[in-house]
Amino acid sequence: MRSYISETAEKDIHSVKLRQDDQGRQEIMNWLTPVDYGPRQSDYLKMRQPGTGQWLLDSAEYQAWLKTKKQTLFCPGIPGAGKTVLTAIVVNDLTKRVSSDPTIGIAYVYCNFWQQGTQKIDDLMASLLKQLAQCWSSLPRSVNVLYDQHRAKCTRPSLDEISGVLQSVATMYSRSFIIVDALDECQVSDGSQARFLSELFTLQTQHGVNIFATSRLIPQIMDQFNGSVSLEIRAHNNDVRQYL
Known about the structure:
The protein is an alpha/beta fold. The radius of gyration is 20 Å and the shape is globular.
């Protein structure tokens, strides 16, 4: 009887510890940023008609981007061309492909003109860090250290600190994919857009990250992707037929 009681008590203690660990983990993730792009991903994917967007997934450009590290696929298009839904399709495709391989990381952001207040450069980088960090059963040590350094002082990490920890976490993956929708809706006036792109390309250069990005046909943004593979988003015959 005593053995049974002792075993039950140990299980209860273990269960409580797991709950406390989960709460602590969630506290750190929310401290990095309360923004969660998962619900938006689900909403955008629901807008997809069955079979649409397959032309992008089957394209030579996308297939080459999938297979090779350190690649960029830039997909510009006019307003209303369906860039956001296609981005959701890409995120969904990647998630399915790598679901059985924890060494491959995926992070994505949906830029939105009306939410620029929560999409400054620090917010965007913190979101990428949050997504790549939370995939591990135990949070990376660098994330815990960052949190501990600021928690007691009630301060926020600098962009350089976030960037440094993000690069540290990126090294834990054999491959990483970063997907950014609507770069043109990322804030320009405070330099967030330019700095965000610079940070992404640094991640790519130093850690082989693959980048998928969409934008309206804006010269200043398109110039940033000179030399990258580009595939314009436009109404595709197969997609049009799905809506008829």
